[in-house]
Structure formats: C-alpha cells, structure tokens
Request: fold
Amino acid sequence: MIFFTVGTQLPFERLVDYMEKWSICNPNVKIVGQICDEKKTDNFISKAFMSPDEYMECFTQASVVISHAGMGSIISAIEYEKPIIIVPRFSYLGEHRNDHQIYTAEAFSCKSGIYVANDYDELSCYLNCNELSAPANDISIESSLISYISSEID
Amino acid sequence: MKTVLAISSGGGHWVQLQRLKSSFIKYNVIYCSTIDYSRSLNKDEKFIQVQDANKDDKIKLFFMFINILWVVLKVRPDIVISTGAAPGFAAILFSKLIFNSKTIWVDSIANVKEPSLAGLKVKRWADIWLTQWDAVSKKYGMEYKGSIL
Reply:
C-alpha cells in the first residue's frame, strides 16, 4: 500500500492529480490518501480527515509515503524509517503562502531515504523504482536543544 | 509545581512539540492543539483542543484569540512553550501580558531560510526565541541551540 498526505491545513490538488494519474497507470497498487476531499476508485481511496490514530496506521503500513514537504510527515518518516517522496508546494501556484517548502525539501533531500519530486515525471520515476531506501532513525532524544530548554525552565 | 502550557497547531508543529517533551515532562503540563490529540497522549496527561486559524481568515483568527485567552486564564501557566504557529503566538502574548509567564518560542524546523511569520511577530513577547537553523540565527538574531532532529 502507498500512503499519501497533503497535511492538515491546505488542499494540494496538484499532488492529488499526480497520485490519481499514477493510480490509473498502476491498477494493482492500493493507494490511500489523506487529502481535502473524499474519492474512491478500485485502487484509490482518499479521506478528507483522518484521526491521528488512523493516520499513524496508514503511515506505518505503507511501503512508501508521498507527502507535501511538511515537517510532520518528514519527522514521522525518519521515526518509522519509511521511504518518503516529498513534493514541495509552490507559492506561485497558490499552494502555500510562501516557498518555505522548497527550502525544507532542499534541506532534507541530502538525507538518504528522503526523495524530492517537483513534477509528475520525477514522482512517477521514484514510484516506479522498487529500490527506495528507508531513512535511518538517527534522531537522538537527548539533543542539545532539549537540555537547553530544560535548564532554562528549571 | 510549575505549570507548563505546551501549545502548537496540529500536524508538524505538534510532532515537534512532542519531541521536546522530555524537557518539561516533570512539571504539571497542559497540552493544547488545534487537532484532538488526547488519545495519543498518556491517560494522566491533560489536553485542551482549541480553534484553528491563520492570518488569512480574520474572523476565525479573532475567535481563536478569544479561545486561547480563555485557555491562558484557566491554566495560569508559569511557562509557555510553543513550536508555532498562530495559536502559540496568541498563548505567548496573553501569558506574558497577564501572568508574566516565562515564554519559549521554538520556530519550526520547516523554516530553513527565514523565521515563520508568527515567529517574527512573537519576538517581543518571547523570553527565549529560538530557531532550529544556524543560518537563520545569524541572519535574524534568533538564538540557535540545536534542533529536534
């Protein structure tokens, strides 16, 4: 199963269109989406809203996750060691208020297991590839940020 | 015991707030977000859901501010910590003005090149004003003390 998510705040029609297009070419692959409206075909199911539990269940069961360049998805992909393809939102297409997702994608693209696709061709190229690697969960719980905040609160 | 109000929008902001948990978990923590995450917390953890809004919808934003004002008055926090966005700004503003709480802003790691809009606006009210990127720190004078990753 492939899971795709556009985040909790804004619609992202371009990514939904990409996934619908890919689902038609790949009828044997089940695709589940968390988007802004409900759609259903044989292999394509999408929901307008998922509870946090439902979202995590889809996330953990998916073989690969496709997402807007939101930090929730990126951090979850690292935590659950799930290959992720991120499609940044462009402000010139009205997909977000600014272009910070382009920079987020750029900053994380150097990490293995995190792939960036800017258009359908790049996305389908990654989706058609069977050898996507998973990111390593190398997040340490005892970060310098946490110790700094702890010391400031005490 | 100190009371901590840990507040953020839903999605990525919340995921980041959760990653900072170990820095304040020993206090009386009240979590607050725009999505109902109560079931993903432990049974003894307190959660309040608030109205979501952003700067593009002024009416919703107004009600969100009222909602957060009520939360702040109810919680009377000693410390407020937020990873963004608008609800965190409102909580820091009201807590600073009413209770002179210690206020901590950790700008989202998504903001690689410049602080978020809420992050820029909260500067006056945040005792600790952090970015998670060294380059942003140098350019905007925010403090950089590492990141959640």
Notes: Chain A is about 40% helix and 15% strand. The beta strands of chain A are 2-5, 31-34, 39-40, 44-47, 64-68, 84-87, 114-116. Residues 65 and 84 of chain A are 5 Å apart (CA to CA).
